[in-house]
Write a structure and sequence with these properties.
By secondary structure, the protein is of the alpha+beta class. 30% of the residues lie in helices and 26% in strands. The chain has a six-stranded mixed sheet with strand order 4-3-2-1-5-6, with helices on both faces. A five-stranded antiparallel sheet has the order 12-11-13-14-15. The chain has a four-stranded antiparallel sheet with strand order 8-7-9-10, with helices on one face.
Length: 381
């Protein structure tokens, strides 16, 4: 919180409203949880005028002399705050009303962080509610807290390491299921079951299978897996992510079902894995995000990788309370620093098949290391 206040002073901002969306999801809650430990767990439901509003949302209002949580949860016990104001959900009070009351009394320069978590109605109500005390227009600072979050504390790294151990257990369970006759949904069920038993929340399981009866295309609509039966020689891929106490794992793996990989399959996987390993090797203190991206990109370019067809226009991202900055792209001059945690990934589609690979690392004084040695199910072929 002290570092945040220093940043506010440097930017000439008197107060910032940090917005969060929870409601049972594992996205967009992170800035408020990071700063005060609060998660808005109530399901996000449509407002009913005169009855309730803003269920499943929260806002933290930070100035130089106070930090006030505004939420719909009277049982929450936030830390590092000076006050906790709770919505009167019985009369339709909104978070904007609470925020206006917190900021009442003097004009000031006000910023808002987390506008991607807000509905248009919420932003409009907030803008109207703070207009009497806002000096000029609201300032948008959506990356303000994310900049602080990119360098992890030892406690955060320990949580990320534990999250990695959950991913490892999940992939080991999936390996037992990945056989001729299993369905894609059976594999996902094994992944999810292990994660759930270890107190993790599953975020995504993106599945693509390449084979005689599968071209890697996804079903029309959620989920991304299907009841497709896996056959010998199919190349199954999954990008699996979830969170333990808010802190994420994000790992992608590939496996050929009950056969030795073909040359095309082996080539696709080798390119995915080699490019990720090149990026990992480049993620050393003193390098830049661009250096990390270029290490992978140059290897891919030498193998005629089709960047235009890539399903994700980056070689990875920061990892913590979600998928976050830095985004691994050439041209980003941000330095790689000790304490950064990164998910470095690549999906390669070529010659009628495809494969994916991903590692989650932490940058140390000695260089990068895996947060946890998660099993590579390809090597079990």
């Amino acid at each position: 919180m002290a570092t945040l206040r220093e940043q506010l002073a440097d930017d000439g901002i008197d107060a910032v409203v940090i917005w969060a969306r929870g409601g049972g999801t594992v996205e967009r809650f992170a800035n408020v949880q990071y700063l005060c430990g609060h998660y808005p767990f109530f399901p996000i439901i449509r407002d009913v005028p005169g009855a309730w509003a803003d269920r499943g949302y929260a806002a933290l209002v930070v100035s130089q002399d106070s930090a006030v949580l505004c939420s719909d949860d009277r049982l929450s016990e936030p830390h590092a705050v000076t006050d906790h104001r709770v919505l009167d959900v019985g009369n339709g009070e909104t978070l904007g009303d609470l925020i206006a009351a917190v900021l009442a009394g003097k004009r000031r320069r006000i910023a808002v962080c987390g506008t991607d978590t807000m509905t248009a109605r919420q932003f409009g109500h907030l803008e109207k509610a703070v207009a009497p005390v806002c000096d000029g227009e609201l300032v948008f600072v959506d990356d303000l807290v994310e900049r602080l979050r990119s360098i992890k504390s030892p406690g955060e790294i320990a949580l990320l390491e534990h999250a990695g151990s959950i991913a490892d257990a999940s992939f080991r369970a999936a390996l037992e299921v990945l056989r001729d006759g299993a369905r894609e949904s059976d594999v996902v069920a094994a992944l999810v079951a292990q994660a759930t038993r270890r107190d993790a929340v599953v975020a995504n399981a993106f599945v693509a299978t390449f084979g005689a009866d599968a071209d890697g295309s996804l079903p029309d609509g959620a989920p991304t897996w299907s009841q497709r039966v896996l056959r010998p020689g199919d190349l199954f891929t999954v990008d699996f992510s979830g969170a333990y106490r808010g802190y994420f794992f994000d790992l992608a793996r590939s496996r050929v079902i009950d056969r030795k990989p073909t040359d095309a399959q082996a080539s696709a996987f080798a390119l995915a894995q080699d490019s990720v390993n090149a990026a990992v090797a480049a993620a050393v203190p003193g390098a830049t995000v661009s250096d990390v991206a270029k290490a992978a990109d140059e290897l891919l370019r030498a193998q005629d990788y089709d960047f235009a067809a890539a399903e994700f226009q980056a070689g990875g991202h920061g990892l913590g309370l979600g998928f976050e900055a830095p985004w691994i792209r050439a041209g980003d001059p941000r330095p790689i620093e000790v304490g950064m945690t990164l998910a470095l990934e690549r999906f390669v589609i070529r010659d009628g098949t495809g494969a994916t690979f991903e590692r989650n690392i932490v940058v140390t004084d000695e260089g990068p290391r895996d947060l946890y040695p998660v099993i590579d199910i390809w090597s079990e072929n």
